[in-house]
Amino acid sequence: MDLRSSPTLGEMSKKSSIAQVDELQSRLLRLQQAIYKHQRRVVLLFEGADASGKGGAIRRLTTKLDPRGFRVYPIGPPTEEELSRHYLQRFFRRFPSHGELVIFDRSWYGRVLVERIDKFATEQEWRRAYLEINELEKWLIDDGTIVIKFFLHLSRDEQRQRLIARMQNPDKRWKIGDADLDAYEKWEDYTQAWNDMMSHTDTTACPWQVVAADNKHFARVEVLTRTVDILGNHLPEYDQKLDPALIKRMKKVFGKALSP
Q1: Does this model's pTM top 0.90?
Q2: DSSP string, 171-209
Q3: Strands of 41-48's sheet, edge to edge?
């Protein structure tokens, strides 16, 4: 896959997206209940350019979820202690327990992206990481974890507009810094790194979900739709049916106050 020729714009109005998002969020809640009921583990990870909409997509994913059943980890630079260990080790303690969904806002792919481009990793290290990452994801999947990885595909022109808008909005200025501008100026380097990432880690067991991200409304609906569809292929939505024995006891306890 060559991202340079892949579309970045999907058509959808805000009005159309609102209705779809609401229904998809309700379905995702039922799937979260199924994750808990069947004691499955789920990992969702998001990669993409700065301002590609990762945070907005994650907020729409989690709006209706029970907060006890999911965690979101924004991944930034490693700490001094983490730098002293294997780069993948800091993710191990963040993987989900049975019945839990974990979302990574950026991930272990930093080794072949920012660490490659800013030379925090040697060429030998980041080239070796493709195999290490594939093995990690295979290990998770073989152990029963459902892994879904999203790449939000944004055009450079749209990123420029969003970065400017962030600077002009007092409520969003905290989101922008020198690192964002550095990455914007290294757009071609990142595009090559993203293409290499796709080439080496888009596997049959764990494919990339590439989502056109120039239209936020389209991207949010697309992320929810794909998440619901993929999870639905692994487990049924929770049907909310009560145990007949529990119904019988409730009728005995509550009598006529219990609706039929």
Answers
A1: yes
A2: TTGGG--HHHHHHHHTHHHHHHHHHHHHHHH--SSS-EE
A3: 70-74, 100-105, 41-48, 145-153, 208-212
Q: Containing domain of residue 187, as a range? A: 3-257
Judged by phi (left if over 0) then psi (alpha if -120 to 50, else beta), residue 259 lies in beta
Q: What is the CATH number of the domain that holds 198?
A: 3.40.50.300
Per-residue pLDDT of the chain (260 residues; tens, 9 = 90+): 789 999 999 999 999 999 999 999 999 999 999 999 999 999 999 999 999 999 999 999 999 999 999 999 999 999 999 999 999 999 999 999 999 999 999 999 999 999 999 999 999 999 999 999 999 999 999 999 999 999 999 999 999 999 999 999 998 888 888 989 999 999 999 999 999 999 999 999 999 999 999 999 999 999 999 999 999 999 876 666 777 888 788 888 887 666 65
Q: How many domains does the chain have?
A: 1
